Amino acid sequence: MKTHAIRIHQPGGPEVMVWEEVEIGAPGPGQVLLRHAAVGLNFIDVYHRTGLYPAPLPFTPGLEGAGTVEAVGDGVTEFRPGDRVAYANPPLGAYAEARLMPADRLVRLPDGISEHKAAAMMLQGMTAQYLLRRTYPVQKGDTILVHAAAGGVGLLVCQWARHLGATVIGTVGSEDKAELARAHGCDHPVLYKSEDFAARVREITGGEGVPVVYDSVGKDTFLKSLDCLRPLGMMVSFGQSSGKVEPFDTGLLGAKGSLFLTRPSLMTYTAKRADLVESAKELFEVVQKGVVKVEINQTYALMDAAAAHRDLEGRKTTGSTLLLP
C-alpha cells in the first residue's frame, strides 16, 4: 500500500525533511501495520535529523506515535486489527501516516487514554517514570533539581515528583515558563539566565545541596549542576539540548563529594518487554488518576514537521507537541 511520510535524504536543518509518498508492504512475522492518529515530537528527533545520532539514509524520523492496528503478521497474538496502541522506541519511522512496527514494542491503550494523549506522553512520560522511579527513586522529603522544568519531560517530572512528596527546584528560561512550571508542581522556579541556579539551590536547601539533578540540557548546565549536589548525590544527564557535555576529569566527581554520574536512556530502561509494559502501566495510572496532566500545547500537520522542529529548537514550545497525519 502507498502512504505518505517525512523522509530525510541528508542530515541538516529542518528544511531537509520532505513529504513523500512511500510504499509499505504487508506486516511480516512479529509485525503489525499501524495507522497513526498522532505522532509525538521529541528533541531526539532533532538529533537524528542533524546527524548527531546518525541513522542510515534515507530514513523517516520519529520514535513515538499512537493509532490503530490495521493488520498483524504471523505469530502476533497480543494484538488484533482495531486495537488502539502506542509506542515510544525504535525503530525510527513515526513521521508517517502508517507504518510497520514490531508488535513487542507496542502497548495497548486503556480506556480513558486517547491516541492524542498517548502520542503526547509516551516517550516523555516513560522517561519521567524511569528517572523518578528507577534511576534515582525519589522519596518523600527529597528536594530535587530539574532543568528545563517547563519542557515536555520537565512538566511531567515536576508533577510526578510533587505527588511522590518531593520539593522541586526547576530551571526555566522566562517568567512565563516559571509560571507554567509553578502551576505543575515546581516549588522553586529559577530563571537560569538571570539567576545563579547553583547558588539558589544551596540557598533553598540550607547549604546542603540536592540528592539528584535531572539534566536534559547538557553543555550549558552540566558543570554547575555538580555544584548543586550533596555528597554522594547523583547527576542524571539524560539529554543535551544545548550541546554535548565536554570531556572532563572524572576526579571532579570525587572532589565535589564522591558523586555518581549516569547517562541513561529510555531505550535501555524499556529494552525488556516486561519493563516496557510496567513503565507504560504506571504512567497510564498516574495520568488516569489526574496526578500527572499531559499538556498538548502545540499541534502541527505532520507534513509541516519542519516548522515544528524550528519552534522546538527555538525554545518556543512548552509541554508536549503533536504532529497530526
UniProtKB/TrEMBL annotation:
The lineage of its organism: Bacteria, Pseudomonadati, Pseudomonadota, Alphaproteobacteria, Rhodospirillales. It comes from Paramagnetospirillum caucaseum. Keywords: NADP, Oxidoreductase. Gene3D superfamilies: Medium-chain alcohol dehydrogenases, catalytic domain, NAD(P)-binding Rossmann-like Domain. GO terms for cellular component: cytosol. Residues 12-323 form the Enoyl reductase (ER) domain. GO terms for molecular function: mRNA 3'-UTR AU-rich region binding; NADPH binding; quinone reductase (NADPH) activity; zinc ion binding. This is NADPH:quinone reductase. Signal peptide: none annotated.
